[in-house]
Amino acid sequence: EPGHATQDRRLHDPAAVRRLAELVPQPVITALGSAEYDEAYTGGDYATYHFPRHREWGHVLSLADAIPMLAKWKKPLINDEPIGAAAEYQAGRRDNSVERFGAAGALAEFIGMGSTFHYEGGLQASLPGEREAACLDAWQRGIDLAAGHASGELLTGDALTSRLGRVSGGRQVFGRLNSDRAVVLVIDPPDPAAKTAVEWADGWVEERRVTAPGALLVTATRRR
Asked: What's the whole-model pTM score?
């Protein structure tokens, strides 16, 4: 957090941080610091960003803001300090929803962004408590759900509807298109997830549905 008020003011200049990074020997990879302070902090080997800790599902859906960042910066991007897990919900600071942590892991993986797990006990180097551990497990399951699906054309909104089909039942939907294969990620699907309706565009045939807490992944193939 080089731009944070607690840091040495010299670090508030991205150029100064870059000069320090140049002193780090190869092959150690470096990031200059969280880029919400200044986009120039993306000048390292990879970029980091602290996404907003909006209330409830807001902090999950805001991860989609990484899509244009990845396209523009053209380097690995890490969600470096997301909202943390805790036993009790604290608006804007901590969440205790396994569904939201599962969805956050799946969405970050699906759009091609790396992420970290943050939790209250970690501030004191304590092992995760029961609820924190449940959120960690859900987050890992979400990542596993979307693993291997971060390639191909990323589709959202009208582009997804016109080219893949219409999805009803879910908070937000993202798609990936790879030639004769399509994948749709539904954030916060109904329970059970089978209630999520996908009206596939002509030529597409649904193949498989898999779930993690807060997320549903649906794959389809193009009929030849």
From this structure: 0.95
